[in-house]
Amino acid sequence: MSTKGFYKEFEVFSKRTHTAPMQYQFSLLAPNKEIALVMAQENFMRREPAVDIWVVQRGDIRKMSQEERQSLQRIDNKDYRNTKGYGYLKKKWRHYEQGMLDEQEIMSWGGKKKG
């Protein structure tokens, strides 16, 4: 019996708590999805708690083509949605603080000079 093509590649995802997002964990080789799930469970039971495990055959995962990825680029300028535009405020605040009155200036108003 030939072992070529006997094992399939599976990707394993898990969820630590009921409210946590599903996260990618690792890949494994198994003859079918049932054995892949058992192998994933055995791996997780020794390492960390999990409330849910997904096992997906790698061949069933569809990724975007280069043309499809280009469609994700922004068509119009929406930089105003990014908070990086507020970086100038730190410099502006520093300039404002430097222009504030210091103790020596305030004391000079009373005609008394400090020490």
From TrEMBL:
Pfam families named among the record's database cross-references: PaaB
Classification via InterPro entries = PaaB, PaaB_sf
Q: What is this protein called?
A: 1,2-phenylacetyl-CoA epoxidase subunit B
